[in-house]
Design brief:
The protein is of the alpha/beta class. Helices cover 45% and strands 13% of the residues. The structure holds 3-methyl-2-oxobutanoic acid.
Length: 284
């Protein structure tokens, strides 16, 4: 198949033509390569990295350097997909200048195609405009924004009443106006996501937001069954890798302990006369 690198115009054409956009997270080279080989349109190095790879309790402790380190690895495994780096908590809130500098690091140091940042609060909206003016494409993120989980009352569905829903609609329009090329809608009622998707010119990428978004994203470790601490309702697990890996590691342990591994097929040969020369040499 004649594959081309995915661009923003191609993503936006998909919305116009009613073709769904596919997106998954990745955090390292081997998974990025598999996701890219499978033909997924967009790869997000999400700050979910903190929870599913680094073992933090939330996404809040994730640093810029951790994000850049993982984005670089994902870049090396990604040839065709559009690569987005996620701006971690406090990398864009302190000042416009710092936000633009940090956003630039994702492109200059890690080779990302765009960045994502959460919410459209007035301060963040200003920063979003500044980043876009600096020439860096921005993917917005509304609804459940995990960096603000404490403020939102936990990792729960957003926009269930008219007041909250209206705020999300207005924020989506404001992000479109600011120049975002697409918006992630996380954990909102499917009917609200449909309404927003119909109102916007730019694509919506849903996670826990129903089937009427212009695309879908999942955290790869959730969909391949590699993160067992908790499982949001919106995740579909396509394979359960954790029990398979556990079984393989247990079998390896047993085979080492009983002498079954390594077998002859895993060993390297040597001529007997060469070995005898060494054994003889040692005696002298
Ligand atoms: O950090 C992340 O992985 C995300 C996705 C869930 C959209 O923000």
């Amino acid at each position: 198949m004649d594959r081309k690198k995915i661009t923003i115009p191609e993503l936006q054409n998909k919305k116009i033509e009613g073709r769904k956009i596919t997106m998954l997270t990745a955090y390292d080279y081997p998974i990025a390569k598999l996701v890219d080989d499978a033909g997924i349109d967009m790869i997000l190095v999400g700050d979910s990295l903190g929870m599913v790879v680094l073992g933090y309790d939330s996404t809040v402790p994730v640093t810029m350097n951790e994000m850049i380190h993982h984005c670089k690895a994902v870049r090396r495994g990604t040839k065709y997909a559009f690569l987005v780096g996620d701006m971690p908590f406090m990398s864009f809130q302190a000042s416009e200048e710092e936000a633009v500098k940090n956003a630039g690091r994702f492109l200059k140091e890690a080779g990302c195609d765009a960045i994502k940042l959460e919410t459209a609060e007035p301060r963040v909206l200003k920063v979003t405009r500044a980043i876009i003016e600096a020439g860096i494409p921005v993917l917005g993120h509304l609804g459940l924004t995990p960096q603000s989980a404490t403020k939102l009352g936990g990792l729960k569905v957003q926009g269930k009443d008219a007041g909250d829903a209206k705020k999300i609609v207005d924020s989506a329009l404001a992000l479109q106006e600011a120049g975002c090329f697409a918006i992630v809608l996380e954990c909102i009622p499917d009917k609200l996501a449909k309404l927003i998707s119909e109102k916007l010119r730019i694509p919506t990428i849903g996670i826990g937001a129903g089937k009427d978004c212009d695309g879908q994203v999942l955290v790869i470790n959730d969909m391949i069954g590699l993160f067992e601490r908790f499982m949001p309702k919106f995740v579909k697990q396509y394979v359960k890798l954790a029990p398979q890996i556990l079984g393989a590691v247990k079998q390896y342990k047993e085979e080492v302990e009983t002498g079954k591994f390594p077998g002859e097929e895993h060993c390297f040969g040597m001529k007997t006369e060469e070995l005898e020369k060494v054994a003889g040499a040692r005696k002298r």
